[in-house]
Amino acid sequence: MTEKRMSRWYFGGLASCGAACCTHPLDLLKVHLQTQQEVKKRMLGMAISVVKSDGVLALYNGLSASLCRQMSYSLTRFAIYETVRDMMGSKSQGPMPFYQKVLLGAFGGFTGGFVGTPADMVNVRMQNDMKLPPELRRNYKNAFDGLYRVFREEGVRRLFSGATMASSRGALVTVGQLACYDQAKQLVLGTGMMGDNIFTHFLSSFIAGGCATILCQPLDVMKTRLMSSKGEYTGVMHCLRETAQLGPQAFYKGLVPAGIRLVPQTVLTFIFLEQLKKKFGILIIS
């Protein structure tokens, strides 16, 4: 007789919120770097500039929107991925093949990306607001105020501005994070050198974070540009052409800060998730 703890459907959202609280300043700096028209500052220079102009707490601008995003985007993709994975795994009495994990991760991430687009857009706007002249700032009080004002002032369609990019990015980052994490963990455990412990979780999530960063960076840059725009782009293809004119490196602008943010966020998310599962997960006895 063996005991096993299964994740509850909402654990992914809670774990992502915990990770977001730790890595939000890095996310804010990434947005600032990606929305530069020319590369004027690197990550450290941007951090110093933000603190000097608006204070240390400015590094947490848009935190409420970030948490709102995690409870829509991440909760949805984790719920879909883990529920279906566990259901299929119990039927087949073994782990899913990697290609099935990739397909499931892509579907869950695409769905989560669409659901989380409104909160994601408000998140980007709130983080980018301090770069604008005072007369052009939106000055959202919090995430819910931002969502309401966009709905009232710009309409429902504007809430889903950049949904194509957000959904596509969600698919790629979920493949990189969830599918690659599961596969890396399976391979590490298969060596017999490490058990199912925090060191295995750290190593597997570190690998997953690197995969996710490389996969999603080009779409992440375009998504950020679309969501923070004030009408400069007529659509996705226009944004793609304008970004391409800056050279191939423009699609990987902010890659290092994106990795510095996404890798720790991935590591923290899965460590929190595994601990939630261990302490509060559904007990299965077989």
Summarize the structure in words.
By secondary structure, the chain is mainly α. The chain has a single domain, classed as Alpha/alpha barrel (Mitochondrial carrier fold), CATH 1.50.40.10. 72% of the residues lie in helices and 3% in strands. The protein has 11 helices and 2 strands, in the order E-H-H-H-H-H-H-H-H-H-H-H-E. It has a two-stranded antiparallel ribbon. Helix 5 (117-128) crosses helix 6. The longest helix has 31 residues, at 198-228. The mean pLDDT is 86.
Strand percentage: under 5%
CATH topology: Mitochondrial carrier fold
| Helix content bin | over 70%
The second-level CATH architecture is Alpha/alpha barrel
- What's the SSE pattern? EHHHHHHHHHHHE
Low-pLDDT residue spans: none
Structural class: mainly alpha
Shape, principal axes of CA atoms? globular
Brief write-up:
It is built from eleven helices and two strands.
